Amino acid sequence: MVTAMTLKAAVAGGSGYAGGELLRLLAAHPEIEVATVTGASSAGELLGASQPHLAASPLGALEIASTTPELLAGHEVVFLALPHGQSAAIAEALPVDTVVVDLGADFRLEDAARWEHFYGGTHAGSWPYGLPELPGQRPLLEGARRIASPGCYPTSVALGTAPLLAAGLLEPDVVVVAASGTSGAGRAARTSLLGSEVMGAVSAYGVGGVHRHTAEMEQSLSGAAGVPVAVSFTPLLAPMPRGILATSNARLREGVTGADLRAALLDAYAAEPFVVVLPEGAQPTTAATLGSNAAHVQAVADPRTGRAVVTVAVDNLGKGAAGQALQNANLALGLPETAGLPLVGVAP
């Protein structure tokens, strides 16, 4: 039952992986209550059947409805966990005073030509970019009615590299190799994601600058650096359900040391609740961020090659998707930014 003091939320795409994680987080939120869950092929099912991990929650008894703007209207906040290209038409039909957080890519890119190149179709425009830890970004999200939540790979790369570029410590040419769990590819059945195909194997995909997240990385890093930043990105599929480990490297500016890199990260994240700069010598692991909205960050200098090596671990369904979407909704609704979001992971 939604109380008079509770903010009503709707989650479109609640039968997917990101939608399911978002619902798990919302189930424990102190001030937001899920009133509506929608889906496509799962419409008519009970949520607990589609998302078994929610079966013991009151949310498990909700019936998944078909996604329509009419059904989503009337909520204080609407989360759109839909395939790329499906959010724009729905968002346009929602009231302007409704907080809408899009977990898809429809409104992330500012450049229409880049959208058309990587995604095809008509560019729907851009909304405030929902990575609060980027320099100057949080004020744009506080009280916003429309927010574009970032992708998982761009989140991990920006959290590690943006502060170093903003401080002028790196050359604006970044090479990224990042491994993701299989949930990053979504819940749709694909032969390449079968257990027998994935177990015991690590494979590269989207090689050669064709992965869609490349444009998003270049956009956020260029904004932080104040100059265009080129990104060479190679994603890897790892045999694990969830998690991202991103390794970025770039040439150091003249005279920059490892101590300078760490100092810049510590300064950037001194007051950030979700970003942990690890002690010197420790490296991030995906297991340590599992189930949390945390990002673990480390940076070292390689004096032999004159390059920085920056490593970041996040849960791709947490800080990389659902957790970050909820963090953005908290900011937009004037709630504590950490409300309903776990700061610690699950181990083992």
From TrEMBL:
- Gene3D superfamilies xrefs: Dihydrodipicolinate Reductase, domain 2, NAD(P)-binding Rossmann-like Domain
What compartments host this protein? Cytoplasm
**Protein name, per record:** N-acetyl-gamma-glutamyl-phosphate reductase
Annotated pathway = Amino-acid biosynthesis; L-arginine biosynthesis; N(2)-acetyl-L-ornithine from L-glutamate: step 3/4
Its catalytic activity?
N-acetyl-L-glutamate 5-semialdehyde + phosphate + NADP(+) = N-acetyl-L-glutamyl 5-phosphate + NADPH + H(+)
**Would you kindly state one Gene Ontology biological process term found in this protein's UniProt entry?**
L-arginine biosynthetic process
Q: Quick check: keyword Aminoacyl-tRNA synthetase in the entry?
A: no
Q: Where would I find the Semialdehyde dehydrogenase NAD-binding domain in this sequence?
A: 8-142
User: Which species does this protein come from?
Assistant: Motilibacter rhizosphaerae
> Which GO cellular component terms are attached?
cytoplasm
Q: What is its main location?
A: cytoplasm
The record's section on InterPro entries has: AGPR, AGPR_dimerisation_dom, AGPR_type-1, NAD(P)-bd_dom_sf, Semialdehyde_DH_NAD-bd
Q: What does UniProt list as catalytic?
A: C152
The EC designation for this entry is 1.2.1.38
Any one Gene Ontology MF annotation carried by this entry is:
NAD binding
Protein role = Catalyzes the NADPH-dependent reduction of N-acetyl-5-glutamyl phosphate to yield N-acetyl-L-glutamate 5-semialdehyde.
Assigned protein family: Belongs to the NAGSA dehydrogenase family. Type 1 subfamily.
- Please indicate which superkingdom the organism of origin belongs to: Bacteria
Q: What class of enzyme is it?
A: oxidoreductase
Sorted alphabetically, which CDD domains does this protein's record hold?
AGPR_1_actinobacAGPR_like, AGPR_1_C
UniProt entry keywords in alphabetical sequence = Amino-acid biosynthesis, Arginine biosynthesis, Cytoplasm, NADP, Oxidoreductase
